[in-house]
Amino acid sequence: MKLSAKTKICLIIGDPVAHSLSPAMHNAGFDALGIGNKYVFLGAKVKVEDVGIAVQAMRKMGIHGLTCTIPHKIEVMKYLDEIDEVAKKIGAVNTVLNQNGKFIGFNTDWLGVVTPLEKIIDLSKRKVLVLGAGGAARAAIFGLSKRKAKVTIFNRTKEKAILLAKEFNCEATDLIKKSDISNFDIIINTTSVGMKPREIETPITVEYLTRNQIVFDIVYVPYETKLLIEAKKRGAMVVHGIEMLLYQGTAQFEIYTGQKAPEKVMRAILETR
Predict the structure, then answer these.
(1) Average pLDDT of 64-92?
(2) Are 120 and 232 found together in one domain?
(3) How far is residue 187's CA from residue 61's CA, in Å, rounded to a whole number?
(4) Residue 261 belongs to what domain range?
(5) pLDDT tens digits, residue range 87-122?
(6) Geometric angle at alpha carbon 52, from 47 and 56, rounded to 5°
């Protein structure tokens, strides 16, 4: 990698962000394609109230791409010039491209959810429980609904789940009967529960998880969350968070560079971290 003043900067912002593997994944991809001198991927911790300032700085500095992680995926939309139709429907943006000074928002998170699941199962008519009601949940619900899955939302603030369910024409639940958990084919955690400093927590009671389920946790640090550990104990198939990170990242890579992402190289980096 030989950087110069011509190197285009891509930046991930979040709070927290130090755990992010996006810089390692993207930089490995740049190097694999021999464009490590043209692009570099960095990270910065930004508080949610400072997202507007971060976007303004991006404009002033000519930063090429902006990746948004928790909790910025909805907030960032206020400061963009244009939002892709898919991102509009989702109501969240995780990817911003500086196209000759015009800031365009995209969402690739839905591909990060749907792609790894479709390698395992046909999503059509599958009963899926989505945990959470934030930007990642919105992407998951969009993608699953697009694939004709039957989606139910659970959020600790029930009112948010109900509003989201109305928006996407699906169901909301308060899981009053914990045994209701066992009725779903797939369970997806889109919250930050399980990530430091909440590593010993799970977003739902794990007692009713079964061997007939797929449990997907988008948290990838730690690699195996408490939810996935407990799911495996009960014989469920688990999908680790690096799968979402990889497939939203490969789609994002192609937006930033216009080149096909080297998936194998990017996966190898994630699996060795």
Answers:
(1) 95
(2) yes
(3) 41
(4) 8-107+244-271
(5) 999 999 999 999 999 999 999 999 999 999 999 999
(6) 120
